[in-house]
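Marked as duplicate of an earlier ticket. Keeping the data here for the record.
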Amino acid sequence: MRTLVDRPAGSSPRGVVLMLHGGAETGLDEVGSRSGPYVRTRLMAAAIGPRLSAQGVGLALLRFSIRGWNADRGEPSPLADARWAIGEIATKYEGAPIVLLGHSMGARTALHVADEPAVVGVVGLAPWFPKDDDVSAVAGKELIAAHGSGDRITSARHTRALLERAEAAGARTRFVDMGPLGHYMLRRTGGWNRAALEACLSVLRHI
């Protein structure tokens, strides 16, 4: 069952960050509260939430219904959950710009739902960005990706290639080099937290 945890920054925040956790290429299993990707994102939310709130920015954390991307197979995917969550936030905080902050599969999900009117940008952490993925949803918006060269699950090289295509399609892009770090954000968690926080606030400053 999908869930949305909302950490508001007052009734009229100047923006809201929606966090989307990682998953797998395929799989229809339910995402439990102890799922590794969800727990990692929840820990990041706890770390950056107070700092966002101090800047007048709210934070929401979505738990997907299922663990797999599946969209390429015509099966249920996290895209529907993400669009639902964006709609919930846009209704509750009318007019507040939304930044999508996704890790791995969550970043790919964000890339594909960024065409929602309330969304102003996407921040991907160790993103799963196939180099030939559709980038039309981020045209006219901001796309920031933080990736480490030690990632053996997703490809920093593919991320750079996708950013180039997104920029050519009209997105404002930036690559954040995380050095030799890997995929799961278990090393130098403070560095990942800072990268996420700074990127989200940067998107909101540029609108």
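See parent ticket for discussion. DSSP finds five helices and seven strands in the chain.
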